[in-house]
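Structure tokens please, single chain.
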Amino acid sequence: MAGPDRAGHPCRTVVITYIIRRLIAAVGLLLVVTIITFAIFYLLPRLAGASPETLAARYVGRSATAQTVHLMAQNLGFYDPIWVQYWHWLKGIFTGVDYNIGTGIDHCPAPCLGYSFQTKSPVLPDILRVTPVTFSLAIGAAVIWLLVGVATGVLSALRRGTFFDRAAMTISLAGVSLPVFWTGLMVLSFFAYNWGLIPPGGSYTPITQNPLLWASDLMAPWITLAFLFSAQYARLTRAGMLETMNEDYVRTARAKGLSERTVVLKHGLRAALTPIVTIFGLDLGLLLGGAVLTETAFGLDGLGHYAILAIGDEDLPRILGVVLVASIFVVLANLIVDLLYAVVDPRVRVQ
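Here you go.
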């Protein structure tokens, strides 16, 4: 174990080394993600018997001739070995790619996540256009469910067996069990249409234009997502608090005369936050990749809705771009979680 420095803090070298290790691991994981993503869309169809012409047929119109499909397969490099195709695809992310669209050469600038032959445009600008909607939805809902879920879990643990505890856990069980699309419809029916407390959604205003209208437009989707996730966090926080509040160091803190607030927040809650941080990073990373059901239920043009449209159009480059971006969000979220461990749990600084 690394010793403390003269100020009593853990050695800065150990912390820096820990961060560098996690950054290197994240880069390696992103490379693995690109390999797996490419294999799903290009290698597995070949193993299932698809020919280069079959793969190229997705990039041309349904009335294309056999010669047109063959030329497209050549232009896209589908006759090359799979590792050569992967290298060209990975290189294109950093350097850009030139695509022959039949009437000329179209350039997909770096970072090029693909080129849609249906929309005749690169994929990344479309993803950047819809990403702020998904970011706003995920971040706003995450703040609500984290505050409500953790606070409810702590109070339930401190008042174990009371009416509040039973009611909170019953509501949490309902929140975990109910599907998102049903909860969304109920929120729209009661809170928006019957009672008129919140707008019905379906519109999005950038936060830079009008912060109040931005929050108002997203209130119904936020409540829907927060109800699901806050229920999970409340149950997990309650279980963690019940376990940590019975530990010897908590009883020692009380015996030393510390206030109950200090005992709960600094000794009980901090130890129970480790699993919360873990699932929060995963949940937020997944939501940043697109909340498909919520965006569809409320008519929000985010990454999830964009992916649904791409699947319906059978537009492989757009689907591939969304999968890659969603994977990057999950990897980055895990990296942030690893770094937060050094703050929440000092034991991760052990070499």
